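Appendix C reproduces, verbatim, an entry submitted by the partner laboratory led by Prof. M.T., so that reviewers can inspect both the input and the predicted structure.
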Amino acid sequence: MNPVSRRATGFTLIEMAMVLLIVALLLGGGLSVISAQIEQQKFKDTQKILDDAKEALIGFAAANGRLPCPASAASNGIESPAGGSTAVTPCTNPYNGFLPAATLGMSGLDANGYLLDGWQGQLNRVRYAVTTAITPGANANAATSPNGIRIATLATYAAAPNLRVCGSATGITATTCGAAPALTTTAVAVVFSLGANASTGVAGGIDEAANQNNDQVFVSHVPVAIGGTNGEFDDILTWIPSAILFNRMLQAGSLP
């Protein structure tokens, strides 16, 4: 048999290596696209979860005349304290608690009663902060005490909610946005996810840290990769403006 004819019937080692390299590159590119699509879906899922949580909070307030206290890390998704705040027992974690999904009667909770975001990790419990503005009479924290807003009167409480959401942590204080852009200054509640990195404020940047430092000022903006001006940021926030809450409570007859 002619040697040249034998060589023409198969691939050489170099040709095989080239084919394998091309296949690997194609697979790698395909996996990257799939991975990006999965992350995008988790982001969308999280936005939907936060929107549902926001509606559940507004519905609870319309039915009960108050917002629930946040859950603590040990309350199994039940507001802490159960039954809302009083002068003796205010909310235990007003600025750094979790969504009280068990109290709200939401579905899809983890084994401990907490609602998880789209990434479904142990550190991905949905967070929730509530305003502590105004102490009405013998109660504490009008928004979370039984009939607290009604007792304080809507006219007095309308401009009182003390949660702030800012566009950056640069220039903020513990109570105001300071030099940072103010996205809202009258939020009665903030609901948020720690995002894909589930950062507790150590691995992320100063903007992420601002959402977990147990004060009334929060930060929200588009995602920023590692190396950004204020560090990595992928937290996802939504909030309830006082006007929206009061309007729904008025419609339900729980105000004035």
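The chain has one domain: 14-252. Additional entries are available on request from the coordinating office.
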